[in-house]
Design goal:
24% of the residues lie in helices and 39% in strands. The protein is of the alpha+beta class and 115 residues long.
Length: 115
């Protein structure tokens, strides 16, 4: 499932540009999760700006840490394949969510070794 998302992103990357909104869904053991982000491309940095992750439907989904860590790994792999040296992910946890630290600003920068 995550590999397919990565393959699709790579296939369509040449048509994407800074400012484009990319959205996709993942089917987890607990339900479908929708993800959207604005792309910001700056030389060797791929920035997934204002990333939002939300469950499809009315029920909160918990216990998906493993799936999201694997998704992050796939995003890093994809960015490396596309020739980026850095992946930056920013967003804000929803104020009234069930996540840890609702409202917290997220700013993750991953620099790739050996690139």
């Amino acid at each position: 499932m995550f590999d397919q998302i990565s393959d699709n992103f790579i296939d369509y990357f040449e048509t994407l540009q800074s400012g484009d909104i990319v959205d996709f869904s993942i089917d987890t053991p607990k339900g479908i999760v929708d993800i959207a982000t604005e792309l910001e491309i700056d030389e060797k940095t791929l920035h997934l700006k204002d990333l939002i992750i939300y469950p499809r439907g009315n029920n909160a989904l918990t216990g998906l840490t493993r799936e999201f860590l694997y998704l992050r790994t796939q995003l890093v792999k994809t960015a490396r394949i596309l020739g980026f040296r850095t992946l930056k992910i920013t967003g804000k946890r929803v104020e009234k969510s069930t996540s840890a630290n609702p409202g917290k600003e997220i700013d993750i920068t991953i620099c790739f070794k050996g690139v």
